[in-house]
């Protein structure tokens, strides 16, 4: 923690980029891989029509951008930009194809060994998400996913295998991607498919409790097996504003924000915040806990807070729930520009959020997703993505202001440094990358990689450690 005024990015600042296995790897049947949740959604992860993939129906995840085979070429490009960190996830079903085996799949483990070696060759730190919307579908079908305590054992076994295998290669870990989205969309975060007539809150809080216990066990294991590693919470924390200054709207907005902050409240502080007991009472929620659960959560909190920040939304009085990365949006904010996908761009909100989280938790922060999804046009083999450069520049400037405000920030991982499949819509045309991938929404294209103008820009930013913006 700094003890005096700082006006620069720290020397060891981890600049880089982030992706997720299901959105980039492809290789859906290779190396003994099982079937994951994302492969069972049809039109995007929010899809509740979840069923096993049909061979003859196109699904973008099957090949994605073929990172499974092309990772050496892609990592070389990341290294050329000067990446210090690269965040990706491990496809749970490559390691445990159904999630329930007692022995891991060696071919899956060997793939990540090769990928991590390649990163290390260039001095790039892997930052690994253990579960990023890729839960084995067998666990969903057989146990109704995280509703069952059995998942704690499956996850613990999975974590033990990862920590033991990669202890010399991976020093930064995240347990669940955007765990707070359990409140809004428990399906892809936790494999919870709420049944008609079911008490949704009951299902969500029970499953979340199991995930908190599993998280604490992962933290414990990580410290035991890799004492020099750091393991964080990952949440979607794009902020939400009241859309007017009526105190009732402001109070409701605080409540909506707490639905997200509830997760880091538990996982960083180590106990359930008192405001949740009223909520449980009013929603008839009875969370079943076992002896020792609360002690475990208390004893093994995470040590940093990683989060995604893309945009901000507004809350309108009386509206039930808005917010976070891909959720519904309240009334448009007249002060902000809007992306082609309707997301409102708000660099000042980024500084606000960094300050808010630092004030609340006093643990290092790590924005591990931030970026602009836009349509790109290739002209004479070039992509002049000035809009993406502007987005990046303004957000990095805002982050620098937050550093001057005294916020402790570990690094910055831009989302989708190479074009990948969109999680929300399964489109390729929603492109975030500094590297273009020749593939369209129907799966046509050569998969060739092409540098956009933003590639050189980000390279310059990293080379100057955030001074040349
Ligand atoms: C985050 C997810 O919510 O948003 C990513 O962690 C996702 O997996 C990102 O890709 C951007 O969303 P989208 O729908 O534009 O891909």
Summarize the structure.
The protein is α/β, with parallel strands linked by helices and 469 residues long. Helix content is 38%, strand content 13%.
What does this protein structure show overall?
By secondary structure, this protein is of the alpha/beta class. The protein is 38% helix and 13% strand. It has helices at residues 21-24, 67-81, 92-95, 106-121, 137-143, 150-166, 186-190, 200-225, 247-269, 275-282, 293-299, 347-361, 386-404, 453-463, and strands spanning 14-18, 85-89, 125-131, 172-176, 230-236, 240-242, 305-308, 313-315, 337-338, 344-345, 365-369, 411-415, 435-437, 449-451. The protein has an eight-stranded parallel sheet. A two-stranded parallel sheet has the order 6-8. Helix 2 runs parallel beside helix 4. It is globular. Mean pLDDT is 95; it is low at 322-327. It binds 6-O-phosphono-beta-D-glucopyranose (BG6). 6-O-phosphono-beta-D-glucopyranose is lined by residues 20, 23, 177-178, 236, 308, 325-326, 369, 373, 415, 422-425, 430.
């Amino acid at each position: 923690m700094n003890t005096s005024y700082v006006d620069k990015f720290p020397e060891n600042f981890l600049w880089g980029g982030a992706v997720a296995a299901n959105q980039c790897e492809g290789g859906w049947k290779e190396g003994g891989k099982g079937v994951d949740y994302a492969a069972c959604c049809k039109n995007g992860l929010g899809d509740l029509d979840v069923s096993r993939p049909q061979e003859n129906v196109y699904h973008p995840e099957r090949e994605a951008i073929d990172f499974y085979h092309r990772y050496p070429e892609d990592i070389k490009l990341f290294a050329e930009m000067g990446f210090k960190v690269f965040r990706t996830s491990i496809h749970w079903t490559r390691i445990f194809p159904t999630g329930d085996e007692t022995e891991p799949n060696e071919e899956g483990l060997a793939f990540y060994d090769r990928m991590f070696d390649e990163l290390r060759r260039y001095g790039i730190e892997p930052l690994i998400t253990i579960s990023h919307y890729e839960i084995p579908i067998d666990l969903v079908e057989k146990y109704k996913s995280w509703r069952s305590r059995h998942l704690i054992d499956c996850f613990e076994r999975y974590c033990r295998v990862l920590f033991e295998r990669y202890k010399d290669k991976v020093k930064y870990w995240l347990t669940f991607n955007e765990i707070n989205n359990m409140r809004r969309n428990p399906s892809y975060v936790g494999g919870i498919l709420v049944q008609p007539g079911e008490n949704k809150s009951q299902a969500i809080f029970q499953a979340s409790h199991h995930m908190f216990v599993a998280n604490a066990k992962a933290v414990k294991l990580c410290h035991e097996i890799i004492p020099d590693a750091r393991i964080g919470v990952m949440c979607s924390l794009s902020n939400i504003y009241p859309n007017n200054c009526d105190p009732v709207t402001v109070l409701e907005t605080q409540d909506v924000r707490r639905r997200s902050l509830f997760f880091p409240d538990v996982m960083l502080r180590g106990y359930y915040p008192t405001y949740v007991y009223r909520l449980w009472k009013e929603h008839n929620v009875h969370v079943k806990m076992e002896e020792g659960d609360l002690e475990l959560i208390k004893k093994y909190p995470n040590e940093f807070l990683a989060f995604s920040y893309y945009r901000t939304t507004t809350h309108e009085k009386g509206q039930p729930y808005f917010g976070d990365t891909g959720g519904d949006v309240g009334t448009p904010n007249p002060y902000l520009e809007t992306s082609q996908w309707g997301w409102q761009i708000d660099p000042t909100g980024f500084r606000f959020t960094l300050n808010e989280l630092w004030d609340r938790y006093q643990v290092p922060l790590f924005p591990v997703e931030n970026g602009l999804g836009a349509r790109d046009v290739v002209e004479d083999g070039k992509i002049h993505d000035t809009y993406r450069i502007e987005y990046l520049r303004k957000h990095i400037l805002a982050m620098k202001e937050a550093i001057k405000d005294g916020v402790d920030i570990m690094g910055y991982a831009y989302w989708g440094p190479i074009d990948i499949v969109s999680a929300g819509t399964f489109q390729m045309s929603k492109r975030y990358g500094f590297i273009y991938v020749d593939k369209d929404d129907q799966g046509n294209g050569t998969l060739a990689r092409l540098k956009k103008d933003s590639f050189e820009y980000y390279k310059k930013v990293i080379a100057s450690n955030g001074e040349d913006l």
